[in-house]
Design brief:
4 domains, 5-stranded antiparallel sheet, Beta-Lactamase, membrane, alpha+beta, 20 strands, 17 helices, disordered N terminus, diguanylate cyclase
Length: 634
């Protein structure tokens, strides 16, 4: 390179440096602005997720409330269609309805109306006690028997806004006999929504499918009965999906809101959970202003430093080289500041440790320098790490990435992910290893949790259906190789639907947990597996077990369920919760034409045989070799 060309290059260097400083400042401002906007979006997405959870929960509550009303209505309809509307029947039903109304807080009223519109449960009353009898006309004209959820109406007796759920009952000849009506108060729903504290200026609204407001918190009395059918949520085609986020300016109070709507798949209901957008973004806005002030200060500092740098560049090559060295050093520190950077010598002792070691392992850099680099690694992980370090010292590997457990100053243990790279002298000989380590403990915990969720039933804690299917295939293959037997028990809780209907789903869940605990107690060997097969049905896999052993386990399970003494009024035979058990055994090596499904089908047939024989018993299907053709065709 000629001297003239070199001088030209140096003359342009300050301009290039100035352009670099400007570009750096612009990049920092741009990245900071983008990150703040991303943080804003994250706040809004978090609010949408929270509103989605609230909307789903409250929609489920509304559906459950209507199901509760409907369960009572169905019973009354059945009684009326069997016994008719004689005064004695009505008197009994009137007493029953009053008792049920007092027992269940969410029920506002229960009534029976004959085919002429006379309110049979209120003697002497002809005509409606509601501001709208649309539900009566609906059942009068429609032969459908499913429940009908009507628009919110006002009770003329106490002035309460209510939602109606009604069913038609027929006369013996199939003609219209009248209506059984149940109502739930708008005030009850509004009070229930008060439990959800999602923001100072938040709101929860439940509307009918035609846009009439059913309940709202806050200001329920001001908005119930108002129509919002002309609003985008009911008009825009893009918002007619089952659920979704919805940003809008409220037509009720003029507040801009972030919300999530959920349409019920079973009833004409729409739940809208909202939070004030201004209130939601206020903390972010305050933090963003503070952070941007710091960024501006940093940019100004960089600009000043850049100006000094440009002036220094004009003083010559030596000063420029010094500045480049400082810049490289600054960049190295900046890039490694968030993770722990260490340098390991050939004697496997730490030669350099970055200040971030305090955050990662709890020790200061000065306390670690000179100590063995691998001293804190878990003994189970140490051999693998040692082998990689030895290979790098020998020059067989240039870089490696590995994860291991490492002790901390607080006597705890963290998972570290380390990226290691060999460093060499000018002559090419290896003189050490540089490691950049980061704490991935939370990531490991999440991985463990996800693995558990993938194979475990959340209600009972037993293996789920997916895990059962995997283990069944594994044990079948093992039994085939070992020429051993394999047994399966299928356990089904008797009359469980009736139990749920009589005692409620929470009690049903508790019942399933008790049964699951009993079954799990019988898994006395490492290879045994208890699983929830589906609903109230359980399965128990017993490797290397013959028919007698299988029957013995099944009998113990039946006895333990009896001894649990769970009261079951609908189980007339015993008065307590019982189960039917079907068992099957096989030797896969002798049933080559069979597969894993054959064992399940055999146990299933035995289970159904136990049910047909009167339930609360164990039935064994016998060896599969006696139930299906052998490989030889016999």
């Amino acid at each position: 390179m000629s001297a003239a060309t070199q001088r030209t290059g140096w003359s342009r260097l300050p301009l290039r440096a100035a352009a670099f400083v400007v570009l750096t400042c612009a990049t920092i401002l741009g990245v900071s602005g983008w990150r703040e906007w991303a943080a804003r979006d994250a706040v809004l997405r978090g609010a949408e997720a929270e509103m989605a959870n609230v909307a789903r929960s409250l929609t489920q509550h509304a559906e459950d409330s209507l199901d509760l009303l409907d369960s009572g209505v169905v019973g009354v309809v059945s009684r009326l269609e069997m016994d008719g509307t004689a005064p004695a029947t009505i008197a009994k039903l009137r007493t029953l309805l009053e008792v049920r109304k007092k027992a269940v807080e969410r029920i506002h009223s229960l009534a029976i109306i004959d085919d002429q519109g006379n309110w049979l449960t209120s003697p002497g009353t002809i005509g409606s006690t509601l501001s709208d009898d649309a539900f009566f006309r609906y059942h009068q004209l429609s032969p459908k028997r499913e429940p009908h959820v009507g628009r919110p109406v006002k009770s003329l007796l106490d002035g309460e806004w209510v939602v109606t759920l009604s069913r038609r009952f027929n006369k013996p000849d199939g003609s219209f006999g009248g209506v059984v009506l149940a109502t739930i108060s708008s005030r009850y729903l509004s009070h229930f929504y008060e439990q959800f504290e999602i923001g100072r200026n938040s709101s929860v609204s439940l509307t009918h499918g035609d846009g009439l407001m059913i309940a709202r918190n806050p200001s329920n009395e001001s908005f119930v009965g108002h129509s919002v059918a002309d609003k985008p949520l009911f008009r825009d085609a893009g918002l007619q999906r089952p659920s979704g986020a919805y940003h809008f300016k409220s037509p009720l109070d003029g507040v801009e809101r972030v919300s999530f709507f959920k349409r019920s798949s079973r009833f004409p209901l729409l739940l809208l959970a909202t939070v004030d957008k201004e209130e939601l973004l206020a903390p972010w806005r305050a933090a963003a202003v503070s952070r941007m002030l710091y960024v501006l200060a940093l940019v100004m500092l960089i600009a000043v430093i850049g100006a000094v740098l440009v002036r220094q560049l004009q003083r010559g090559q030596r000063m420029a080289a010094a500045l480049i060295e400082k810049e490289a050093h600054f960049r190295l520190l900046a890039e490694g500041s968030s993770d722990m950077v260490t340098r390991i010598g050939l004697d496997e002792r730490l030669r350099y440790v970055s200040p971030s070691s305090v955050r990662v392992v709890g020790w200061r850099a000065s306390q670690l320098i000179g100590t063995p680099a691998l001293a804190g690694i878990n003994p189970e992980d140490l051999p693998a790490v040692q082998a990689i370090v030895d290979a790098m010292k020998r020059g067989e590997r240039e870089e490696a990435r590995l994860t291991y457990r490492n002790s901390t100053r607080q006597n705890g243990e963290v998972w570290l992910e380390s990226t290691m790279r060999v460093t060499r002298k000018d002559n090419g000989r290896v003189d050490g290893v540089v490691a950049i380590s980061r704490d991935i403990t939370e990531h490991k915990k999440l991985e463990t949790r996800l693995e558990t969720l993938a194979i475990e039933d959340s209600l009972t804690g037993l293996a789920n259906r997916r895990r059962f299917d995997e283990r069944l295939k594994e044990e079948w293959a093992r039994a085939y190789r070992d020429r051993s037997s394999l047994a399966l028990l299928m356990i089904d809780v008797d009359h469980f639907k009736a139990y749920n209907d009589e005692y409620g789903h929470p009690a049903g869940d508790a019942c399933l947990r008790v049964v699951a605990k009993i079954i799990a107690a019988e898994t006395q060997r490492a290879g045994d597996l208890a699983a929830r097969y589906g609903g109230e049905e359980f399965a128990m896999l017993l490797p290397n077990t013959d028919a007698d052993g299988c029957a013995l386990v099944g009998d113990r399970i039946l006895k333990a369920i009896h001894e649990a003494g769970l009261v079951h009024g609908s189980n007339l035979a015993s008065g307590c919760v019982t189960a039917s058990v079907g068992g099957a055994t096989c030797r896969p090596a002798l049933e080559r034409t069979a597969g894993v499904t054959s064992l399940v089908e055999a146990a299933d047939r035995a289970l159904y045989a136990a049910k047909e024989a009167g339930r609360d018993r164990l039935m064994m299907s016998g060896e599969l070799m006696n139930l299906m053709p052998r490989a030889s065709g016999q």
